Structure formats: structure tokens, C-alpha cells
């Protein structure tokens, strides 16, 4: 099989396989091993880091979307006067799958002597099930327990823990009246009964959001109209495009905000961190790849007699250069393949590996109050893996150019003078 290969590649394969038993310079095997290990370690680290960042983004986005709509519609003139008609108009777009009205309030929850700030969302339970997955996250009750006039409330479980309440307890909601000032106003107070607790796995929502029936929310704030309309889509990734289409086809006084814009700063920051992390870890691969320069320089010096003999037998400088470029590229490919295999294996099994690491360290690596998650997610994407492998091989190839060019310029007569 190897007899049909170009002789330059055959020599490169022979030199690569003979690294460990170099007679003239035993350090070559050590340096080559360091080069391969460095490339493999850099590639594996980059794959794992990007997989974790992808998993973090995917997991947090999924948990956010269990609470926030794909598209939010509000009327710039104030409350939404006829949400059913607005929903009917929106559903003429085939991408829209459902909608529900909402009311947003800011207030304080009071239980005994404990007071916590809260964002209250007034919802219509039957319609809300078409735009969010919150109904599946409720424990100790159901979304249908939010009946108009009964003043029931569903709390995030972290918020309930901080208040010290459980299902069946009564607490007070304090809201500022519209038009009140910071120095003189009397808050409106309404007693609610805890009908259930929800846990979406996102600390911001679990510790700071409560759900009530939309009619109860309007009664507390003395609102005549809903605050707006939530829309769900068949494909959430089409939200920016669909929002633009709805904006162009519906009345100008309606404003549309998709889910990516509601958390625009967070997603932009994560993408920026991902790009910076990629560049930093690529530098690690670059350092390891350019170790090939020293390896090949030493190899060229070790094989000067062989190069001279090849030249006298008719090998061209281009062929000599090709031999050492292929050798360096082979080392880069071996390191890259090893790194890809190790990185993908680690990324796919990070849910098993990280608990072991945390038990050895005796502490949790992620704080859910800071990172929203308590476990390390991972989502290896093959596009990222292919890009990392390509960059690694390309850097290894670039590192071979200088020593290979030096090998091509060796004078046979000078090399064989003392042989």
C-alpha cells in the first residue's frame, strides 16, 4: 500500500515513526512528544470550553423561554385595547402558533416581618399554556388555580423560601399607585393566597417573579386594559424575522420585541466571551504548534547527511522541502486527532466527570445565584469541532515552512565533507 505513495511522503512517514529511536539526538523524541501533547491539550481544552459555553447558552435560553414569550406586543399609547383582535391579526402570519394577554406589576410581597421585591405577572391561565411552559414547572398546585376574584398567587420557589411561605399561606402584595411620588404615596395592599410554587431553574425568575390571574392584577392596579400580548412561534429561532414581518403588516402604534432583544445584553456578552475564549485558547494551540519549528530544525540538523544523499540521487530542493513539511503536518494531524478525540469524549461525558471533580475539590464549581445553573452543561457542536481541527492543522502547517525551507537550502557537498 505504501509503495504507491510519493517518495516524499514515504520518507516523511519513516522520519515520523522513527522519532523515538533517533540515534544522533535522543532529545528529538522528547520535543516531538511535547509538541504533539501541546497541540492535543490545546485542541481538547478549546473543544471542552466552547462546548460548555454552548451548553450554558442553550440551557439558560431554554429556561428563560419557559417564562418569557417569543415575541411581546405592546401598544405605545398605553394598554392593549383589544388583545383578541390583535392576536387574530398576528395569527395570519403562519409562523405564529399562539398568544396570551398579560399585565406586569412591580411591588413588594410581605409575610410576617419579611418583605421581598417581586415582579408580578398577571396571566390568563388557559391562554398562557400556549405561549410558555410554566404550567409544567408548578408544584403543589396548577396554573388553573389562578381563578379571577380568588386572589391566588403562584411564587417562584426561591422567593417562597426567602419569604418563608408554603402553599396555603396568605401574604400581602404592596404596589405603588400610578402617579405616586417617591416621598408621598400610600401603597395599595392586597392579600393573596399561595396556590403553588414554580421552579424554572433560572434564579432571576425563581427568586423574583410571581403569577396571578390577569383580572386580579388589573384589580390591584386599577387597570382597564392588559399591558400587552405574548406570542409564541413554531420556531423560536425565527423570532427576529417574524417580529419584523408583524411590525410591517400590523398597525404602527404596536411595538414588537422578540426574545433575543429582551435579553440582548446577556446574549451579546456571552457571544463576546465565547469569541475571546476562542482566541485565547487558539494561542495555546499556536504555541504548541510552533514548537514544531524547534523540532524540525533539530531534525534537519540531524538528517543533513540523509538530505545530502537524497540531493545527490536527484531529489530537488522542492522535494526536500516537501518531506519536512509533510513530517510536521503529520505531527500536527496526530496531535489534532488526539485532541479532538479527548475533547469530544470529555465534552460528551462532562455530566459524569464534573461531579467527581467537585467531590474531590469539596465545593460546587457553579453558583446558581451567579450563573443561573448549578451543574455544568455541555453542547458540543460539530461545526466548532471542525473549525478547531482545521485551525490546529493550519497552524501546524505554517510552523513547518521555515525549517523546511532551511532543509531545501542545504548544500550537499558541505554536509558530506566530514562524513
Can you characterise this structure?
- This protein is of the alpha+beta class.
- 53% of the residues lie in helices and 17% in strands.
- It has 17 helices and ten strands.
- The protein has helices at 7-17, 27-64, 83-90, 125-128, 157-163, 203-206, 214-221, 239-249, 259-262, 264-302, 304-312, 317-348, 350-361, 368-371, 382-399, 401-408, 412-416, and strands at 71-75, 96-111, 114-123, 138-139, 152-156, 170-175, 188-198, 209-213, 228-233, 254-258.
- The chain has a six-stranded mixed beta barrel with strand order 2-3-8-5-7-6.
- The longest helix has 39 residues, at 264-302.
Please outline the helices and strands.
Layout: H1 7-17, H2 27-64, E1 71-75, H3 83-90, E2 96-111, E3 114-123, H4 125-128, E4 138-139, E5 152-156, H5 157-163, E6 170-175, E7 188-198, H6 203-206, E8 209-213, H7 214-221, E9 228-233, H8 239-249, E10 254-258, H9 259-262, H10 264-302, H11 304-312, H12 317-348, H13 350-361, H14 368-371, H15 382-399, H16 401-408, H17 412-416
Helix pairs in contact: 1-12, 2-10, 2-12, 2-15, 10-12, 10-15, 10-16, 12-15, 12-16
Amino acid at each position: 500500500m505504501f509503495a504507491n505513495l510519493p517518495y516524499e511522503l514515504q520518507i516523511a512517514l519513516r522520519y515520523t515513526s522513527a522519532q523515538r529511536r533517533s540515534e544522533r539526538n535522543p532529545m528529538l523524541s522528547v520535543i516531538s512528544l511535547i509538541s504533539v501533547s501541546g497541540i492535543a491539550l490545546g485542541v481538547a481544552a478549546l473543544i471542552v470550553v466552547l462546548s460548555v459555553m454552548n451548553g450554558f447558552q442553550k440551557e439558560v435560553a431554554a429556561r428563560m423561554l419557559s417564562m418569557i414569550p417569543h415575541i411581546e406586543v405592546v401598544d405605545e399609547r398605553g394598554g392593549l385595547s383589544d388583545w383578541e383582535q390583535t392576536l387574530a391579526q398576528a395569527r395570519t402570519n403562519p409562523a405564529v402558533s399562539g398568544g396570551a394577554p398579560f399585565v406586569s406589576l412591580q411591588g413588594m410581597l410581605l409575610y410576617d416581618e419579611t418583605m421581598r421585591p417581586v415582579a408580578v405577572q398577571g396571566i390568563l391561565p388557559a391562554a398562557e399554556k400556549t405561549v410558555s411552559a410554566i404550567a409544567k414547572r408548578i408544584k403543589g398546585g396548577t396554573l388553573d388555580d389562578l381563578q379571577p376574584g380568588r386572589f391566588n398567587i403562584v411564587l417562584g420557589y426561591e422567593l417562597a423560601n426567602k419569604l418563608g411561605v408554603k402553599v396555603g399561606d396568605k401574604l400581602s402584595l404592596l404596589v405603588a399607585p400610578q402617579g405616586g411620588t417617591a416621598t408621598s404615596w400610600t401603597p395599595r395592599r392586597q392579600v393573596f393566597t399561595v396556590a403553588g410554587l414554580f421552579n424554572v431553574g433560572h434564579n432571576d425568575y425563581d427568586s423574583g417573579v410571581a403569577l396571578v390571574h390577569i383580572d386580579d392584577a388589573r384589580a390591584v392596579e386599577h387597570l382597564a386594559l392588559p399591558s400587552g400580548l405574548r406570542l409564541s412561534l413554531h420556531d423560536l429561532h425565527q423570532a427576529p424575522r417574524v417580529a419584523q414581518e408583524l411590525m410591517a403588516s400590523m398597525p404602527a402604534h404596536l411595538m414588537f420585541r422578540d426574545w433575543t432583544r429582551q435579553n440582548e445584553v446577556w446574549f451579546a456578552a456571552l457571544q463576546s466571551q465565547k469569541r475571546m475564549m476562542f482566541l485565547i485558547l487558539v494561542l495555546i494551540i499556536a504555541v504548541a504548534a510552533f514548537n514544531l519549528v524547534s523540532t524540525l530544525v533539530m531534525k534537519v540538523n540531524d538528517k543533513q547527511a540523509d538530505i545530502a544523499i537524497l540531493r545527490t540521487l536527484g531529489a530537488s530542493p522542492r522535494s526536500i522541502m516537501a518531506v519536512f513539511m509533510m513530517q510536521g503536518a503529520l505531527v500536527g494531524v496526530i496531535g489534532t486527532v488526539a485532541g479532538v478525540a479527548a475533547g469530544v469524549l470529555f465534552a460528551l461525558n462532562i455530566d459524569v466527570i464534573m461531579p467527581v471533580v467537585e467531590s474531590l475539590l469539596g465545593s460546587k464549581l457553579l453558583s446558581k445565584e451567579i450563573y443561573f445553573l448549578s451543574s455544568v452543561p455541555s453542547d458540543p457542536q460539530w461545526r466548532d469541532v471542525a473549525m478547531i481541527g482545521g485551525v490546529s492543522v493550519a497552524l501546524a502547517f505554517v510552523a513547518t515552512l521555515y525549517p523546511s525551507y532551511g532543509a531545501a537550502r542545504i548544500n550537499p557537498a558541505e554536509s558530506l565533507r566530514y562524513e
